[in-house]
Design goal:
The protein is an all-alpha fold. The protein is built from 3 helices and no strands. The chain has one domain.
């Protein structure tokens, strides 16, 4: 279950990283990358400690999927809100 939450966190971090890189925010994208390495370290350590446990991979994949969909929905909502405010 912990890897499910870590998957959501990871996708939030990756989405933030993508946004900062596309906006050419060099320092912030570097800081986010640094933090993401620690998340990956935790994930790899957890998976390698119990490599035959496919449920760990399932929960991590499900968390990543959920995180991607959640963050994409939030960005979509904020974009629509910004467009609506612009049209006022």
């Amino acid at each position: 279950m912990m890897l499910f939450l870590i998957g959501i966190l990871e996708m939030a971090i990756i989405s933030a990283w993508t946004k900062t890189v596309s906006e050419e925010k060099i320092l912030l994208s570097g800081i986010i990358t640094f933090g993401n390495i620690f998340v990956w370290y935790y994930v790899l350590q957890t998976l390698l400690n119990d490599l035959s446990n496919w449920q760990l991979i399932f929960w991590y994949a499900l968390g990543c999927t959920t995180g991607t969909m959640l963050v994409t929905s939030i960005f979509n909502y904020l974009k629509k809100k910004q467009v609506a405010n612009k049209n006022l």
